[in-house]
Amino acid sequence: MGKQTGAHIVWDWNGTLFHDIDAIIGATNAAFAELGLEPLTLEKYRELYCVPVPKFYERLIGRLPTEAEWEVMDDIFHRYYAEHRVACELTVGAVELLAGWRSAGRSQSILSMYVHEELVPLVRGFGIEPHFIRVDGRTGPSGGSKAEHMVRHLGSLRVDPERIVVIGDAADDAVAARHVGARAVLYTGGSHSRASLEAVGVPVVDTLEEAVDEAERLAA
């Protein structure tokens, strides 16, 4: 990528670069049906969603799922999502923003809680992998926070945390950024309502273009 200057962006994938909210809602409702729950609307999902995911389920059913329930629901979610993600596309404007950031001599990477072995070929299939100096998905069990994954991601990047801005669609992205001493910008096009994102105390934007502008400002 040549000489890297200015901010380094750590992009989230699901709900940020990858506009897959419809597949996620469908997968969530398929998992909820296993417990006899009514389907969620997008608005209700965004109002209640949180990480770790079992806590999200607790908000809906009044208790944490049992270990057996969690395993079944998690399996249903991922099977449904894998079938329906094929209809999803990158977020509008993402390709141009990634190319522009790279051509300006700045660096960027992806850290996602989507399983690593499936994330990498998906990113590669959209033809955007060359824009990133690293692409990391989740290793280990699902349902946890991104914070510890962020520690490992930054350790491999060798980038000063003060240069790093995390762009994601979830409060947990800001938590992970704070955990490593980085900044964050949250995008309203994914899993959370604007109100819940604003409660986190970091900049909140409605487009990825605004997110990139904010990243530049924060790292200036």
From TrEMBL:
GO terms for molecular function: phosphoglycolate phosphatase activity. One of its GO terms (biological process) is DNA repair. It comes from the Bacteria. InterPro entries: HAD-like_hydrolase_sf, HAD-like_sf, HAD_sf, PGP-like_dom2. This is Phosphatase. It comes from Streptomyces swartbergensis. One of its GO terms (cellular component) is cytosol. Gene3D superfamilies: HAD superfamily/HAD-like (3.40.50.1000), Putative phosphatase, domain 2 (1.10.150.240). Signal peptide: none annotated.
